[in-house]
Design a protein that fits this description.
By secondary structure, the chain is α/β, with parallel strands linked by helices. The termini are far apart.
Length: 710
């Protein structure tokens, strides 16, 4: 501990408890030599140690207290006075571990932290059904490993049976955990676990108090009290209760389920922050991504979003997380609430890392991690600065991937994720055609004219060559793995191409086939970008693709010193909620009539197209739920690979008016990314039956009913 803090000054008292007289004597001599008078060595059975015997002076200075016989039968308190209790490689050596773990709560103060590090072996079969372990990354040890290490440690009477850790996690709440391997000693499995009292809020909370607070705060922080705990309710509240009496978040459902079974809450409820909402990481819909994010940076122009939306302090925003860049841009405008949603847990881990870094790091470190994509001290910063601000799952994720930022030979953050395949293909093409030097020249160009000349003479002939288009870019597997283009979106691109002037005009220049459709889509994307935006100084989206990093002159809004000054304030992310789920699942559980803005990016392109006016299918269901979640006048911002996406008709059939605010005609650039063919804002103008709570008719009816009852 002395490597990290000044033990004599940081702690008022330190009690070292061990049952070995010889080890205790060695410890006493060490502390006497160091002059640490606040450290007291107690030679006692850990099952019987009581902190109050020493803190209250009952022992009279003795190393073993003298108690009356009756005192041994007094019930131990629910909590004690220790701010920190640690067990280092000792839980596996105590035969009667149940009683020792049971005694921990009587030692730990109400807001104290418990820390354990020890060896272990365990199969994922034992724990895959539990939601309170803090995550299962790296926890599974294969059969041969379990058999070998258990037998090896048995020789020294060190027991690695899983029940020790299982009971620890059952008796206390998990804050953070990590499952690691000591590779220097044959990859011995060991774990680090941080926990606290099992009951949330306080160790004396009654069950009904816990449920009431979770009910009010299921998507908030369990350490906060309900904002409105009045007996009386207004008409809007009553209307919501009548039309949606059972709206509950999945976090609430999980919490109540655990409490009813006398289990700890999921680790999300014990975090320092309320940003990340509980999700079940063992569901197939989350595991399908194989612990990899697709996007290391976001492909939506934050400047255009800001101009279109003009967010204010009363706005409640729902948006897809992606890499989190635009979520941070929205947060700079200080709306009342931001719901960030992504089905891929890793995308939300990336957003969490950015939010934690704003909270804990100075701008210089923040820039190295997310501007340059590399930081030699990332692992140290993760452990010492960022870990208190991360959920257990996000902490495990980045601890396992610290080498992304620390590897000298690696290319850093922006050469990771699914999007790295597109960047690597461009790097390969530029080498194959000998234009790597031209890429550097383009980034260093001083004027648009110079940039255009380099593009048309050196880079474009290579990148947009028939070889690249036919063999690489038009591959459905490449489009999904590298660019996140699903088959339905690809079909929309092909459909637009089939009716384009290039195919149906009097002098056709292309055929109605996939390779031609993708080639023309790339031309309509890239040529206008080069013609109208300066990549070296004002287009960070393409700058990072070409350079592998951002520059002080060219970067997203969230990487500016001004953004850091805004988002590093203590309350900057109080309104942020990070959901790991489908959009439809989240909006179905949001109080009706409360959203003001929903930003769904190009997600509607992923749905199967339905016949006009059918009113069925995934798109129609999601649009109907968006209508119910949005207040009157609420807006949906979306982008599409089609100039006239089919689902705009569905919006108009479900109480919205659609307005095209960006149309990428050939040669025209709608924003600095220019990756999409159109951009739309759909405004809610009509409630769907049943009426959205808060509408005048329903509020009026509710008031009338209340008056009649009076």
């Amino acid at each position: 501990m002395s490597e990290f803090l000044d033990v004599p000054k940081f702690f008022s008292s330190v009690y070292l408890v061990d049952f070995s007289p010889s080890l205790c004597e060695v410890a006493r001599k060490r502390f006497a030599r160091l002059g640490w008078s606040n450290v007291k060595v107690i030679c006692e059975d850990a099952r019987k140690f009581r902190l109050e015997d020493y803190e209250n002076g009952l022992s009279g200075g003795r190393t073993t207290p003298t108690r009356s016989s009756a005192s041994y039968f007094e019930p131990r308190p629910d909590h004690g006075g220790a701010d920190l209790v640690t067990m280092s490689y000792s839980l596996s050596m105590i035969p009667d571990y149940y009683s020792v773990i049971d005694s921990l709560t009587s030692l730990l103060s109400p807001h104290g932290i418990m820390g354990v590090v020890d060896f272990y072996v365990q199969s994922k079969v034992d724990v895959s059904f539990r939601n309170y372990t803090g995550g299962l990354a790296g926890r599974h040890v294969n059969f041969l490993g379990r058999t070998f290490w258990r037998s090896w440690f048995d020789l020294d009477r060190v027991s690695l049976e899983p029940g020790r850790r299982d009971y620890l996690e059952y008796r206390l709440g998990t804050i953070l955990t990590a499952n690691l391997r000591n590779k220097a000693l044959g990859s011995i499995p060991y774990y680090i676990w941080l926990g606290c009292h099992k009951k949330p809020f306080s160790s004396s909370s009654l069950p009904h108090e816990i449920v009431e607070r979770i009910d009010a705060l299921a998507t908030e922080s369990p350490y906060l009290f309900p904002a409105n705990n009045q007996k009386g309710t207004n008409a809007l509240t009553r209307a919501v209760e009548r039309t949606a009496p059972e709206i509950r978040s999945k976090a609430f459902d999980a919490a109540v389920g655990n409490l009813s079974a006398n289990l700890p809450l999921p680790s999300f409820f014990y975090q320092n922050h309320h940003w990340r909402i509980y999700y079940d990481d063992q569901l197939e819909k989350h595991m399908q991504f194989n612990d990899e994010y697709i996007y290391a940076f976001t492909w939506e122009d934050s400047h255009v979003d800001a101009e279109l939306l003009k967010l204010g302090p009363d706005d409640v925003v729902l948006a897809i997380t992606s890499a989190g860049d635009n979520i941070l841009s929205y947060a700079m405008q200080s709306p009342a609430r931001i719901h960030a949603i992504d089905l891929n847990p890793s995308q939300n881990h990336l957003l969490e890392l950015k939010v934690a870094s704003f909270t804990a790091l100075p701008y210089e470190d923040f820039w190295k991690i997310f501007g340059e994509g590399k930081h030699p001290e990332f692992r140290s910063l993760l452990l010492s600065k960022l870990s208190p601000h991360l959920s257990s799952r996000a902490f495990q994720y980045w601890l396992d991937r610290a080498s992304i930022f620390t590897n000298d030979r690696g290319r850093g953050l922006y050469d990771t994720g699914g999007s790295k395949h597109a960047i690597r293909v461009f790097r390969w093409v530029s080498r194959l055609f000998g234009c790597r030097k031209a890429v550097k020249q383009l980034l260093e160009s001083k004027t648009l004219a110079e940039q255009r000349q380099i593009w048309h003479s050196k880079i474009r002939p290579a990148l947009l060559s028939p070889l690249v288009s036919n063999i690489v870019v038009s591959s459905e597997a490449f489009l999904w793995a590298a660019l996140g283009v699903p088959k339905n979106q690809l079909a929309m691109i092909e459909a637009d191409h089939a009716t384009s002037e290039a195919v149906t005009g009097p002098s056709p220049t292309a055929k109605n086939k996939r390779s031609h459709a993708i080639w023309h889509y790339m031309v309509n994307t890239l040529d206008p970008v080069i013609e109208t935006t300066h990549v070296g100084t004002d287009n960070p989206y393409y700058h990072v693709c070409l350079a592998g990093e951002f520059s002080p002159q060219c970067h997203p809004d969230y990487l500016s010193p001004r953004a850091h000054a805004i988002l590093s304030r203590p309350d900057a992310f109080d309104g942020l909620r990070i959901h790991t789920d489908e959009i439809e699942e989240v909006i179905a559980r949001i109080t009706p009539g409360t959203l003001t803005v929903a930003i769904v990016m190009d997600s509607m392109d992923w749905f199967d197209q339905q016949p006009a006016g059918a009113g069925t299918g995934t798109a129609a269901r999601q649009i109907a739920k968006l209508n119910r979640a949005l207040k009157m006048g609420g807006r949906v911002l979306l982008r599409s690979s089609a100039r006239r996406p089919w689902y705009i008709r569905e919006f108009e059939a479900h109480g919205f008016v659609g307005k095209q605010v960006g149309d990428r005609e050939p040669g025209r650039c709608i924003d600095r990314v220019n990756m999409y063919a159109s951009c739309w804002v759909c405004t809610k103008v009509e409630n769907l039956p049943p009426p959205t709570p808060g509408s005048e008719a329903e509020v009026g009816q509710g008031i009338a009913e209340d008056l009649l009852r009076l």
